[in-house]
Structure formats: C-alpha cells, structure tokens
C-alpha cells in the first residue's frame, strides 16, 4: 500500500517530520490508502465434497470429540482461503462438522452468530439451542443466535455432518474483537422446552395474550438478540422454491431465489451480519454481474459451474465455493441445480455501502 514517495518526503522539513513522529502523527497524504490492517486479495476457490469427505472421515476416526482439548470441543474441517490464511472469507466462516453416533459436542455459547445447514442428518441428530432440541434432517437450517447455549447430540446410529456458518472473521479479524465465549457447566444443557416451542413463538401463529396494561408482549422471552432460534425445515423451503419456479420469473443473476427471512421481522437478513438464500437454477446461464459483498456457496444439489473472472469453478453436490468481492461472475447450471447462497451483504447495507453492477460489454 501507500509507499513513501521521496517527493512527498520533501514536502516537510526534517524538523516538522520529527515533530510529527515524536507525537505519533502522520500527514494524511502518506496514510490515506493505508489506515490499518489489510487483507490480501481473496481468491475465488472451491472445496470439492470428495476431498472434504475424506478429511472429515479421517479426523472422525482419529479424534473422538472427547479427546479434543477442553475449552472448545468441536470436530470441524475448515476451508481456508489461502490468500487470507484463516477462513474462507474475511467476514463469513464455514466449516464441516461431524458428530459420531452416541457423541455429544458439549454445550457452550458465544458472541458470534452461527447456523447449521445439515448435510447428513436424521431426526435423532439434534442440535439443542436455547432449551429446545431441533432435529437436524437433511437440508434443514437451524439458527444459533448470539449468546444462546448450544450443544449437538447424536442419538442416531449414523455419523451426522453439517455445514457451520459463523460471522466469526468479521468479529475476530475485521473488527479485531474476541468471540466472547463460555462453556456450560453441563455437557448437555437442560432441555426446558418441548420440540416446536420456538416455532410457537416465531412461526405463523404467535403468542397473543394481552397483559393487564392492555399491551401484547413480544414473543421473545430469552436473550434479546435480533434473530431467534429457529429451524427452517427443507420440505417447506423446497416446496416454496418449486412454487416460484412454476409461477414466477427468475432473477437474472440468482435464478429462482428464496430468502431465509428473520422470523422476528419477516424479512432478510436472517442475521444482522449474514444473509442466506436457496437458489434454484434451471434456465441456463445467469447474467454476469459483480458486487462489493462476498458470496459463499454450498451446493445443495445438481452440477454446474460458476464463472468468476477468468476462472470456472466446477461444482457438484455438497461442494463449497467462494466468489470474492468485485469479481464478475455468473452461474451455469448443468440442468437443474440448487445452491445455498451466503453473503455479508447486510454489513454493506448497514453502511449504505452495498453496490452491484453488470459489466459494460
Ligand atoms: C462453534 O461454536 C461451533 O457450536 C462450530 O458447533 C464451529 C467455529 C468457531 C467458533 C465457534 C459449534 C465454530 C464455533
């Protein structure tokens, strides 16, 4: 970044320069492009499921969760964008986690927002969030909002695998804060709600009891995060996607796209920091565009390629890939495909800083 141009150095007397240096001051023209840490340019990249699978199988057979160092016990393979060195992007983290039959990933809570997107699940694999057991069936998405206790309990006879998504690099790297963290005193938090409780608070029917002062209480009775604990069952999401494909016009860039809305607001984004969409692509290539937000994709089903600049990321089921900011990209499904699209766009929108455009041809 900002190199010190000898001519710029000439603009100040040695005396002035020393004076500034002694007082920890610098002239703006020497720092204007370099106000702090910068990340290397993120590269487009893809992690193929067969490689991820081999890796998670390997660590599953080598490392029982109980053998992980106390403190933070999760068995996860984490895609690393080599240009960054610690995660897939500088805002969104993804990892692939496994829990073997009979294992528990112990209860803890933290400041970062998280969600699970189930790859290999079943009704006896449960992620317990805020007192409720949420079954993790294939393609279900379950939120773990900030500071809610969560543990993962596999009462089935099959290994479960899912995608973890957190806004962790945003907290740790971009904002340079700690992910405030606490372990529960118990391995499994007490289950204090019946299954479906959080849906009774945030689903289509909601508490309506009037209080003595005439007001109707808000549904949220736990911590006051902006996003509730919630399970988006895949059956309903897929049905809505198919309805869109039957009746609506596709978006030129995203195909038939369905937002996971925040149940508290009925709108995107699901978290203040991350937005999620299921995208059905079945009408040939999408139109190229670019934007300043990052996009991370997980392939729910189908095959195809996403062209990013000069590169073609060729994907099939359960691959994970990343489209860096400002890169011109478009999708080219081979027949029908469904992608889970994840983006930090809400962070840009909060600053009124989001921009997208189509390339001038
Ligand atoms: C976490 O809490 C989980 O609860 C998974 O399953 C991955 C990565 C970084 C920090 C916290 C989980 C995580 C994580």
Q: Short summary of the structure?
A:
With 361 residues, the chain is of the alpha+beta class. It has helices at 6-9, 14-22, 28-31, 49-62, 168-174, 197-202, 234-247, 345-350, and strands at residues 45-47, 76-77, 93-99, 104-110, 114-120, 122-129, 132-136, 141-144, 150-154, 160-166, 181-183, 231-232, 256-259, 275-281, 290-291, 295-301, 304-308, 311-315, 320-323, 329-333, 337-343, 356-357. It has one domain (45-202, 224-357): Jelly Rolls (Sandwich), CATH 2.60.120.
Word description of this protein:
- This protein has one domain: Jelly Rolls, CATH 2.60.120.10.
- It contains eight helices and 22 strands.
- The protein has helices at 6-9, 14-22, 28-31, 49-62, 168-174, 197-202, 234-247, 345-350, and strands at 45-47, 76-77, 93-99, 104-110, 114-120, 122-129, 132-136, 141-144, 150-154, 160-166, 181-183, 231-232, 256-259, 275-281, 290-291, 295-301, 304-308, 311-315, 320-323, 329-333, 337-343, 356-357.
- Strands 1-19-16-21-14-13 form a six-stranded antiparallel β-sheet.
- It is globular and about 75 Å long.
- 39% of the residues are buried.
- Bound molecules: 1-hydroxynaphthalene-2-carboxylic acid.
- 1-hydroxynaphthalene-2-carboxylic acid binds at residues 74, 76, 95, 97, 105, 110, 114, 150, 164, 166, 168.
Descriptive tags:
6-stranded antiparallel β-sheet, single chain, 361 residues, alpha+beta, 8 helices, binds 1-hydroxynaphthalene-2-carboxylic acid, globular, Jelly Rolls
* Number of E-type strands: 22
- What is the CATH topology? Jelly Rolls
Contiguous helical run count = 8
Q: What is the percentage of strand-forming residues?
A: 25-35%
Oligomer: single chain
The profile of the biggest β sheet is: 6 strands, antiparallel
Say which molecules are bound, naming each kind only once.
Answer: 1-hydroxynaphthalene-2-carboxylic acid
If you compute it from the alpha carbons, what radius of gyration comes out, rounded to the nearest whole angstrom? 23 Å
- Return the structural class: alpha+beta
Overall CATH class: Mainly Beta
């Amino acid at each position: 970044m900002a190199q010190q141009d000898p001519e710029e150095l000439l603009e100040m007397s040695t005396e002035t320069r020393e004076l500034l240096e002694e007082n920890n001051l610098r002239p703006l023209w020497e720092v204007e492009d370099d106000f702090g840490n910068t990340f290397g340019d993120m590269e487009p990249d893809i992690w193929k499921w067969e490689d991820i699978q081999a890796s998670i199988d390997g660590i599953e057979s080598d490392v029982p969760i109980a053998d992980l160092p106390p403190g933070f016990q999760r068995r996860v393979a984490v895609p690393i964008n080599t240009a960054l060195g610690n995660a897939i992007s500088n805002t969104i983290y993804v990892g692939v986690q496994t829990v073997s039959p009979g294992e528990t990933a112990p209860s803890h809570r933290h400041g970062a927002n998280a969600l699970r997107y189930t790859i290999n699940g079943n009704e006896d694999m449960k992620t317990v969030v805020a007192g409720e057991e949420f079954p993790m069936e294939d393609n279900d998405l379950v939120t773990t909002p900030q500071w809610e206790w969560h543990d993962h309990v596999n009462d089935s006879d099959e290994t479960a695998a899912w995608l973890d998504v957190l806004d962790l690099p945003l907290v740790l790297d971009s904002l340079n804060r700690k992910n405030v963290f606490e372990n529960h005193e118990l391995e499994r938090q007490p289950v204090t709600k019946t299954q479906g409780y959080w849906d009774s608070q945030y689903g289509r029917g909601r508490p309506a009891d009037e209080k003595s002062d005439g007001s109707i209480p808000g549904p949220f009775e736990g911590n006051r995060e902006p996003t509730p604990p919630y399970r988006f069952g895949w059956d309903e999401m897929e049905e809505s996607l198919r309805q869109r494909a039957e009746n609506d016009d596709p978006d030129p860039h995203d195909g038939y796209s369905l937002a996971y809305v925040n149940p508290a607001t009925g709108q995107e984004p699901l978290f203040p920091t991350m937005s999620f969409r299921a995208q059905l692509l079945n009408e040939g290539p999408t139109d190229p565009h670019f934007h300043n937000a990052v996009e991370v994709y997980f392939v729910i089903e189908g095959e195809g390629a996403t062209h990013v600049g000069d590169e073609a990321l060729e994907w099939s089921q359960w691959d994970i890939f990343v489209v860096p900011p400002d890169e011109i990209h478009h999708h080219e499904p081979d027949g029908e495909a469904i992608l889970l699209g994840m983006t930090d766009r809400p962070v840009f929108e909060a600053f009124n800083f989001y921009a997208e455009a189509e390339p001038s041809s």
